[in-house]
Description:
hypothetical protein yedk fold, globular, mainly beta, three-stranded antiparallel β-sheet, single chain
Amino acid sequence: xxxxxDLPNFPPxxxxxxxxxxxIARLVNGKxxxxxxxxxxxxxxVKDPREFALLINARAEGIAEKPSFRAAMQRRRCLLPVxxxxxxxxTPKSKRPFYVHPRAGGPMALAGLWETWSDKDGGEIxxxxxxxxxxxxxxxxxxxxxxxxxxxxxxxxxxxxxxTDVKTALALLKPAPEDLLEAHEISTRVNSVKNDGPELIxxxxxxxxxxxx
Length: 213
């Protein structure tokens, strides 16, 4: 789907948590390349990451003006390939987890921003944040936000900062079409990063049957 130059051997993950490595596609010398980066963006101007709040998401609203994201929005845009993502619906007593994925199956690409942070000794770390927008009507009963999903026809426009200015790129940061996604409730086992397997994305009814058999 991404047409990158690499053949990555990154294992399937079902419960990726902030600060863990995630695969992204970014442009390097005009080519789409695979990279593993840390989820949780650190702007280049940060002096001590231990004193800086982890930037997991970047809200699309005002993203081009915010100091933490302004430079990355101009020059360092990326795509995060996923089969789906999790959202939690707030209830009076708890939060209900849902798995959200394309109705037609297959992968999709989330909009992201990446940065390289350097310490005083010259060590470097690449980090990223997922761009979010207001949820579409389908997802809004579950959560008021959703990651921006970039259509395959817009991959080049989002990635190529030399050819696509910020104003044009901002126009891509919009809710997904209403018929693109579907969601089903899943087990609360997803709430623990210790759990990471395909059973996490099973509908809660199937999961209950599997665990009782």
